[in-house]
Amino acid sequence: MTGSATGGKSAVIATDLSTASESMIESETGLNCLGRIGVERIHIVTVVPSNVHSGMPGMGFEKRRKKALRRYRSIVEDAGFDVETHVVRGTPHRRINGIAGSVGADLVLVGSRGKSPLENRVIGSTARNLARTTVVPLLVDRIERGVDEPETIRRHLFKRTLFATDFSENAERAFQSFEYLRHATKEVTLVHVESPKDDTSGGPDPEERLDELVDRLDEWGLDARTEIRRGDPANEILAAEADHDPSTLLLGSRGRSRLRRLLLGSVSEEVVARAAGNVFLVPPPRSA
Fold this sequence. Notes:
The protein is an alpha/beta fold. The chain has eleven helices and ten strands. Strands 3-2-1-4-5-10-9-6-7-8 form a ten-stranded mixed beta sheet, sandwiched between helices.
């Protein structure tokens, strides 16, 4: 593993044992990126849905699961990480959140948009459910869809990062992630979207606020460009992604609440569902 710059972090990688999620685990470049941001221990988690059991006709699930997890462990250990595997039963996003909380994970990594087998659909809807409920930063790793041997769409997880900000506390929390992401980041694009609903009269100038963020990034040795767009926030963030082709979109979420579907769905969840590349979603801390 390339030397950890900050050290001591742990990550949960959720897999449904499909060829799509396998490509995520097999990505040498992706594992290298995790090492660069300080990840040392990886927990590989697979969730068996409650309505699936190993004796179901045609499944052969138990044997496949053990074989796949042994292979995944070997790949990740060979990349220089300490590895633990977890097999749990239940609703995928709830169990993944539970494992992440119990092991004190700093990051959850899940694939999205790939094919997944009948017995466990982690890739796809679970990514969206995790976006609504995650208790730790969530990286949605985009994987090719509709091909027999899918690959990760963006090999470098954080090399070119597009940070979307509305200057809120949630956005500031996500911005602070650059303190460790910088060790795997080469380019940063800062985007602010002015919505028609915003009241900007008498408020701080967005260009000045973006320039302040540029100065902070400069202290971390990162060059950045800025852009102000106008329109619907989710649509404009996705349009900025199309224009700049980043490895990853970085943004904050409003975290868990009874109203999380309303609070999150307006921007963050929409971006997770529709982005072409990876999305790194930073929620409020567990204590919030």
